[in-house]
Write a structure and sequence with these properties.
Layout lengths: L14 E4 L4 E6 L2 E6 L15 H23 L6 E11 L4 E12 L4 H14 L1 H9 L1 E9 L11
Parallel strand pairs: 5-6
Antiparallel strand pairs: 1-2, 2-3, 4-5
Length: about 160
């Protein structure tokens, strides 16, 4: 597929391996990601590993968190911590991820307007967010976690 921009496309490469029984791994940038490559659930006594859909949810979470950091620099947005919960839903037939939902919490004293600006940029410029949004219903929210004055930590 041709790129719509003038810049050369960025390329990402991984190598994968699967062994009988379903234990599988992906090597990416010098690290290994173990996953369940079996058709069904892991057998008794086997280490429970994430499957491909879990890895897709993890990629979405990683994309959003990476872009919190990226846009905190560009927008001069101050935050102390960001956490995210992601859920993806599979449907069939045919098997596919139909929906993805996330809840991003950001510990910050920035205004709600600045928080929404951060969220718009994350949604507009996230590689994985854009890819999933093109293929599935992607919905998410961003929530400010305000630190009580003088405590330096967020409420439990």
């Amino acid at each position: 597929m041709a790129s719509t921009g003038n810049a050369a496309p960025t390329r990402y490469e991984v190598k994968g391996e699967s062994l009988p029984g379903g234990r599988a791994s992906i090597a990416a940038r010098g690290g290994d990601i173990l996953f369940d490559g079996a058709a069904g659930a892991s057998g008794p006594g086997e280490e429970k590993l994430p499957g491909p859909a879990d890895l897709m949810a993890a990629a979405l979470a990683a994309c959003i968190l990476k872009n919190v950091e990226r846009f905190s620099k560009i927008l001069r947005f101050d935050y102390r911590r960001a956490t995210i919960d992601v859920a993806v839903e599979r449907e069939e037939p045919p098997p596919r991820i139909a929906r993805a939902r996330y809840r991003l919490q950001v510990e910050t004293d920035e205004s709600d307007a600045r928080l929404e600006l951060l969220h718009r940029n994350i949604r507009k410029f996230g590689t994985i967010t854009n890819t999933i949004a093109a293929a599935a219903d992607l919905q998410g929210e961003i929530i400010a976690v305000r630190t009580p004055a003088g405590t330096g930590t967020a409420p439990a």
